[in-house]
Amino acid sequence: MGKSTVTTKDDAQALFHSLRSAYSSTPTHLKIIDLYVLFAVFTALIQVGYMAIVGSFPFNSFLSGVLSCVGTAVLAVCLRIQVNKENKEFKDLPPERAFADFVLCNLVLHLVIMNFLG
Amino acid sequence: MAVPIDNNLTKPTPPSSTLRFAFGNVLAFFILLLIGVLAFSIRLFSVIKYESVIHEFDPYFNYRVTQFLTKNGIYDFWNWFDDRTWYPLGRVIGGTVYPGLTLTAGTIWKVLQSLNIPLSVETVCVFTAPVFSAFASWAAYLLTKEVKGTGAGLTAAVLLAMVPSYISRSVAGSYDNEAVAIFALIFTFYLYVKTLNTGSLFYATLNSIAYFYMVCSWGGYTFIINLIPMHVLLCIVTGRYSSRLYIAYAPLVVLGTLLAALVPVVGFNAVMTSEHFASFLVFIVIHVVALAYYIKGMLSPKMFKVAATLVVSVGLVVCCAVVAVLVAVVASSPTKGWSGRSLSLLDPLRLALGWSRALDLPVPGQRHSRLAPSVPGYKTQYQAVKKTYASKYIPIIASVSEHQPPTWPSYFMDLNVLAFLVPAGIIACFSPLSDASSFVILYLVMSVYFSGVMVRLMLVLAPAACIMSGIALSEAFDVFTRSIKFYISNLSESLQIDAGDTVPGNNVSPPSDVLKNDKKEDMLKERPSRKNKKKEKENIEKPSVKSKTEKRPLVLPVEASFFALFLTVLLGGFYVVHSVWAAAEAYSAPSIVLTSHSHDGLHVFDDFREAYAWLSHNTEVDDKVASWWDYGYQTTAMANRTVIVDNNTWNNTHIATVGTAMSSPEKAAWEIFNSLDVKYVLVVFGGLVGYPSDDINKFLWMVRIGGGVFPHIKEPDYLRDGQYRIDSQATPTMLNSLMYKLSYFRFVETDGGKGYDRVRRTEIGRKHFKLTHFEEVFTTHHWMVRIYKLKPQKNRIRGKTKKSKSKTSYTTTPRSGTVKKNPWH
Question: What class of enzyme is it (chain B) (predicted)?
Answer without folding.
Answer: transferase
